[in-house]
Design brief:
alpha/beta, single chain, Metallo-beta-lactamase, Chain A, about 325 residues
């Protein structure tokens, strides 16, 4: 996409996760280039991205900074390596900067095991999820040194102004970048064109991430957006229509989640199995459980269902 002084190039890179690929964006301004997100390190992805940077910066000027939308591994994976290679700053929202260190740093995962056990994840499944996380810790090294972006304070890159928009839900302090003059929104995983972003109640998320997400959809809806550039899939031309589809999806999922508790009390893991099935990868299992918990907590906080402790587990039931 080219709009006067702004050029955006989408690069799709392979990632070793169920979605298979992730988008990163080279954004050209009169004063140089910024990179939004970095995908995940593999030798092939590293070489492909380096080649794309060389080609793009030949026309748009040198790489000046990296902006991360959120802390998930398919978005921050090469940030530390790129920072060392190009000697440039890495920027993120304050909340996501904190989570990069908390989730992927030396103390990562200390409390996650008990959280998943409490919500019914069997020991054998928990072991596979834990081992996957340990593998990611090694792959993400070195972690970047992150500078924070302050919401409400415009960012100036190369003479152009971008507005940081905090959109919690998929991640607690997820960041979008809005270029108002062209109506361009670099939207990360807040909006995706074909699948619904995972909205999870994680050990480190806010108390009601689904409510946060739905509210953030309204924030985006109030912006002038001609095209949204997502972290996975093709650009989104009709943002309003996609937001409507996501609202409908979550209303249907809330109804289905509530219906599963009629006449039964279930752990979050048991509800997730009924909603998503049992044949899932470790990452898909974790995503299924935390997304289910986000919907259960949304219902609980509105008085539709309740929780109680049964042995080592928390179960959800109809009031």
């Amino acid at each position: 996409m080219r709009d006067a002084d702004l050029t955006i190039r989408r690069i799709t890179l392979p990632v070793p996760f169920p979605l298979k690929t992730a988008n990163v964006y080279l954004v050209g301004t009169p004063g140089g280039t910024i990179l939004v997100d970095t995908a995940f390190y593999t030798p092939d992805a590293w070489e492909r991205l380096r080649t794309e940077v060389i080609t793009f910066t030949a026309d748009c000027g040198p790489l000046r900074a990296i902006v991360l939308t959120h802390h998930h591994p398919d978005h921050v994976g090469m940030a530390g390596r790129l920072q060392e290679y190009y000697e440039i700053p890495v920027l993120a929202s304050p909340g996501e900067a904190k989570l990069i260190a908390q989730v992927w740093g030396p103390c990562a995962g200390r409390h996650d095991t008990e959280f998943y056990r409490l919500h019914g994840m069997p020991a054998i499944v928990l072991d596979t999820v834990t081992r996957e996380h340990e593998g990611l810790l090694l792959a993400l090294a070195p972690l970047p040194r992150v500078e924070v972006i302050i919401a409400g304070r415009p960012l100036a890159f190369g003479g152009l102004e971008f507005a940081p928009v905090i959109t919690p839900g998929h991640s607690p302090a997820h960041l979008c970048l809005w270029h108002a003059a062209s109506g361009s929104l670099l939207v990360g995983d807040h909006l995706l064109p074909r699948i619904t972003p995972n909205i999870g109640w994680d050990p480190y998320s806010g108390s009601d991430p689904l409510d946060d997400f739905l509210a953030a959809l309204g924030e985006v809806e109030r912006l002038f957006v001609q095209k949204a550039y997502p972290g996975h899939g093709l650009p989104i031309d009709d943002v309003s229509a996609r937001i409507t589809e996501l609202r409908v999806h979550h209303a249907e999922r809330l109804h289905a989640t509530r219906a599963l508790l009629d006449g039964d009390a279930l752990t979050g893991y048991q509800v997730a199995e009924r909603l998503f099935g049992a044949d899932l990868s470790p990452q898909e299992v974790r995503f299924a459980v935390v997304e289910t918990l986000a919907h259960l907590e949304y219902l609980r906080r509105r008085g539709d269902i309740a929780t109680e402790r049964r042995g080592r587990h928390v179960v959800y039931r109809v009031r």
